[in-house]
Amino acid sequence: MSFFPLKDSFGTTQLILNHADISPDLAILSNVPVESNVLIEGTVLLRPSSAKRPGATGEIDVLVDKFTVLNPADTLPFVPSNPHNLPNDDLRARYRYLDLRRSILSDNIKKRSQVAHTIRNLLHDQGFVEVETPVLLRSSPEGAREFLVPTRTSAAEGDGQSADEPLFYALQQSPQQPKQLLICSGGVDRYYQIAKCFRDEDGRKDRQPEFTQVDMEMAFVSWGENASGTPGSDAWRIGGTEIRDVVEKLIQTVWRNIEGIELPEHFKVMTYHEAMTRFGSDKPDTRFGLEIINLTDLLPRDTQVVSDPEQEILECIVVRKSSDSEFIRASRACESTASTEHISLKDGNTRSWLLQSNVARHVYPYLNEEDLSTVNTALKIKSGDDIWLAHRPRSPKGGSSALGRTRLSVFELAQARGEFTVTRDPHFLWITEFPLFTRDDADKEFLAHGRWSSSHHPFTAPVWQDVEVMYRGEVQSVRGQHYDLVLNGVEIGGGSVRVHDAHMQDYIFTSILQLNEQEKSPFHQLLHALRCGAPPHGGIALGFDRLMAMLCNTQSIRDVIAFPKTRMGADLLFKSPAAVSSEVLYQYGIQPRSSSS
Amino acid sequence: MSFFPLKDSFGTTQLILNHADISPDLAILSNVPVESNVLIEGTVLLRPSSAKRPGATGEIDVLVDKFTVLNPADTLPFVPSNPHNLPNDDLRARYRYLDLRRSILSDNIKKRSQVAHTIRNLLHDQGFVEVETPVLLRSSPEGAREFLVPTRTSAAEGDGQSADEPLFYALQQSPQQPKQLLICSGGVDRYYQIAKCFRDEDGRKDRQPEFTQVDMEMAFVSWGENASGTPGSDAWRIGGTEIRDVVEKLIQTVWRNIEGIELPEHFKVMTYHEAMTRFGSDKPDTRFGLEIINLTDLLPRDTQVVSDPEQEILECIVVRKSSDSEFIRASRACESTASTEHISLKDGNTRSWLLQSNVARHVYPYLNEEDLSTVNTALKIKSGDDIWLAHRPRSPKGGSSALGRTRLSVFELAQARGEFTVTRDPHFLWITEFPLFTRDDADKEFLAHGRWSSSHHPFTAPVWQDVEVMYRGEVQSVRGQHYDLVLNGVEIGGGSVRVHDAHMQDYIFTSILQLNEQEKSPFHQLLHALRCGAPPHGGIALGFDRLMAMLCNTQSIRDVIAFPKTRMGADLLFKSPAAVSSEVLYQYGIQPRSSSS
């Protein structure tokens, strides 16, 4: 007898050739090249229960009577069935159709389909209408990262364009305006779309020039019962509770159907302020401790000499030898950065470490024994503990603080060293009440030129308690009705309640963001739609590729996309992007730019 | 009492204000501008059963206790709730968010969502995996109608491009190659996607630059039981029966769930040859008669003098005063064209009309009495009948013949005159066995330069009986395993069994289409994938916009798209396409072409 593995989309089945009674024709099955496409006819045999293997085809063998080679395989650039001898990423990307023969990849693709199906059914049952919005939209001055699409058709009707001037669409970066206009129409109260979006940016991190969002928008969103909750009380104190409920149902259903995991009825809620002060991150990973402690709160106000508002708060992380034993060696092995100080407590400095800290001394030059004692008692530190120190501004800014980054470094190193095993339970968390405007986003400064920018987008409504604050011009203090959904320290979605008052929207464009007429022009139709009696509304977009990467337990979204591009946006299979001849470009009214310009 | 209509996404509800006991605050509800967004609190009253209206809100009134204006409407460019005073298409397109308040449009959008949901569930249940394929693909020399997308990212890795040369993606015109490569991978046996596709062409007919396809591909497609059926026997004699079965199930389920109509288990099948000879169209409308009759078959061969192979067959349509009474007046009112002759039979010419026909005399100058008699007897003509005459080549070519177009003209005129009412039963029909290659497609001649072109695309397999014919070089005689799905004379989808033999595929590229190396380069990855043991496969794409337009009983696909573009590709709402500044274009390595070039 001889045995052959037969792989199909259901799994691998063992073929049995009984040499005692087979014809010479059948014997040559062993000559068929590996990875060929073969039709097998034979008898299905049940494997003895002791020999059952996992998987859909694990219970059977097939005794071969006859085979037909449907399509023989030529010499292959690599053999995907051999996981121990895989070539490098680029070669596999070039022959993606072979790489996709590996079950680990094709299983991801199938899981993606299952999750999309689950999401669509849930949203359909919740009364959402699936609507396709235009992929070909208008270029906007904001479009620092947009793709342009030249067109050969003549100028837009009645738009006063010269027919000789080249005209462009822009690919949607998100369906933000179309979906808001759809809800403004009142014809659809609940919209969703699993939408392809596009961004022309270099491959920082794990991004793709085309990516997929689960995009939603709802009319008549409202406050929930906890609108008056106090900070730190795990309360959703903003509008959009209907969005929260639907997204939680959606995520719960996906985890139940796909992972067999029952999630809590509600996910925890944390304000941006709390997330930044406790975890130093606007997307905190709450699967482990190492929380940040505010030392300024422990110290008398008059001992502080603050010259720089960026250094108003002194904070620390204590990694304890006793209770943080999984992290203590990683912490000791981590190096301090320009903005952090790392002090290992030994018998000699356990009492006086704060006096010796450069970071602390800088703003607390006059600490006395009593202050030291207060801090040490509050921190309950012991010799052998590790302390990390840094400053931050009183109002947290941006997406992470120095100690937030330190916290993650210690965590990651402890994992890499095998000293800490993170829980497999998914930690979902809502972050709310982000600052509505920012001056600290380098990506936005490109367009803001020193003006305020919207932290997310200019359609987000302020929290109601801050509306007057906004009209008084205290721009930095205004919080937005924005919510991010975070899973295990990764942002998997974000949305907001939108401004539905045309006057307020115009005030934000004109008085806060100080947009000129040209900059405001892409928003004219939205402003007008608000003036037509638009309902209050809000929405969210979930990053589907990232969600799938987490469900498939892979680091790279490329593993959950059938035909992904490289980090640099290159498609090695289809060989794009590529040069195009001048004759073809001419038809679109463009040419390569002259090198002199 | 006074009454107000309140419209929401469920329908219109009647509000009742009881002036006897309402406060002055409430009375001012009548001052709220029309189309404002209002929150109503009150008591739901059941209407008397005699006063029930159709629709979701037709059984109730609401007695108003309190109202809150959530968002007042300003002066509107038009009032969508007044169907008798709608402005022109362009103004409504510009304010599409107002136009979508008309239920007739928002109902279409909701129906589209329902149909998509039905299709997805059916395909999911049939074991199809939904896979997203790249929208950003590579430009191809074939891409006469493709959109280019310049990118700012540096040159594709390792592709030998100069970094200064502008690089482009192209938007997918269909996911043809990605879906075939996916099936070639073997990881997925059944693929589907409701895919956005793009074509940069002028607005001939009812086309959009972005449109939606229900796209499918299946591995291991095969012949059915009727593979040896005879022509004209309503038999599917090609491969891909699994595609046929799934599409019929899908269409049946949509018509059952959405329209409440039970369709036959199998749709009729007709070869291209039969469709062209009986109906003069490759997408015949079989809801009415007026079939074409071949006169050459009735006449003795030796009476024919053929100088032009395009005129080998003489054919006619007889519109009978008796049995075609709905059409006879329309027929008499239709004018003949350059390629048709129109003869009205009167007492004087009922016997001799064929002798007097210019079209007939041209190739039959020597007819005798017996020939006339044979024809007249066979046609059973009578005085008062109308006859249309034309020539065609022996092997039908293209999508329609002169008499096929005449047949439709008479039908349309009879409908417009109110003399014929077409059945409401949908007539589904498969057309199969198209010629695989053509030299008569003006659109393709642009690239073919006198060479053969593929009638559909170069991946379609020949019917098995014609494989030898193809290798013998009798290109014009080769039929393809192609199938179109036709509904009421409109093509709503098409597909084929693909070539899976790399040698045959290369023969088609090289020996038949005579592509040079550069022209073949976009197909390299597919050719290689076939060489890696690809399974036999086939697929289809259904035009989702067109299908929806037919389900919504509208002439224009713009009525089933939330934010459509005009025929010229202009988006009057978002004002695209639009000019882009030279500074921005510079970043993409392009500039407007100089007027001198």
TrEMBL record, chains A, B:
One of its GO terms (biological process) is aspartyl-tRNA aminoacylation. GO terms for cellular component: mitochondrion. GO terms for molecular function: aspartate-tRNA ligase activity; ATP binding. Pfam families: tRNA-synt_2 (PF00152). InterPro entries: Aa-tRNA-synt_II, aa-tRNA-synth_II, aa-tRNA-synth_II/BPL/LPL, Asp-tRNA-ligase_1, Asp/Asn-tRNA-synth_IIb, GAD-like_sf, NA-bd_OB-fold. It comes from the Eukaryota. Residues 112-564 form the Aminoacyl-transfer RNA synthetases class-II family profile domain. SUPFAM superfamilies: Class II aaRS and biotin synthetases (SSF55681), Nucleic acid-binding proteins (SSF50249). Keywords: Aminoacyl-tRNA synthetase, ATP-binding, Ligase, Nucleotide-binding, Protein biosynthesis. PANTHER family: ASPARTATE--TRNA LIGASE, MITOCHONDRIAL, ASPARTYL/LYSYL-TRNA SYNTHETASE. HAMAP family: Asp_tRNA_synth_type1 (MF_00044). Belongs to the class-II aminoacyl-tRNA synthetase family. Type 1 subfamily. This is Aminoacyl-transfer RNA synthetases class-II family profile domain-containing protein. It comes from Crucibulum laeve. The lineage of its organism: Eukaryota, Fungi, Dikarya, Basidiomycota, Agaricomycotina.
